[in-house]
Amino acid sequence: MELTRRGFLIGALGGLVLGAGTRPGAGAPAPAFTLPSLAGEAVSLAQYRGRIVLVNFWATWCVPCRVEMPWLLQLQKEFGRDLAVLGVAMDEDAARSVPPFVQRYGLTFPILLGNEAVANAFTVEAMPATFLLDRKGAQVQRVDGPFHLEAMRRAIQALRARP
């Protein structure tokens, strides 16, 4: 499914009408991917093995995504090297629309240029969609729609406490 504005609405409504479909559950390994960053380098999820990872699928036109951006920055600052935040931008014209957005929000975590294949691998049907992965790359938590900052903080703290 194409995650455009129209696709977002169709996906959200389809999820309500048809059900969520098949999704990997907690403990399942996150799908492997390599995506170009906004800076032009190839970034793979495997690079972050050994760290807690928060993968956030978003778009510049998504209002709840805009609300989450300061929270993502806050979590990144709070947890430092223990947490890697990866923002996966799903805009169709990302090369044009994402850089001003990143500058406006002061985003310092890696921004990756997403594609339909990666969104499908994660079964993203609407945005935002956030995935919390443990140090081994297993999915611990999935949040469709905006996440709750305090709940995410507690989940990250719990993972941080694990050996």
What's this model, at a glance?
The protein has five helices and seven strands, in the order αβββαβαβαββα. The chain is of the alpha/beta class and 163 residues long.
How are the SSEs ordered, and which strands pair?
Elements: H1 5-18, E1 34-36, E2 42-44, E3 52-58, H2 63-79, E4 83-89, H3 94-105, E5 111-113, H4 116-121, E6 129-133, E7 139-144, H5 149-161
Parallel strand pairs: 3-4, 4-5
Antiparallel strand pairs: 1-2, 3-6, 6-7
Short descriptors:
Glutaredoxin; single chain; 5 helices; 7 strands; alpha/beta; 163 residues
CATH class bucket? Alpha Beta
- The string of secondary-structure elements, in order, is HEEEHEHEHEEH
Subunit arrangement of the protein: single chain
Task: Give the fraction of residues assigned to helices.
Answer: 25-40%
Number of domains: 1
Looking at this structure, what is the CATH superfamily?
A: Glutaredoxin
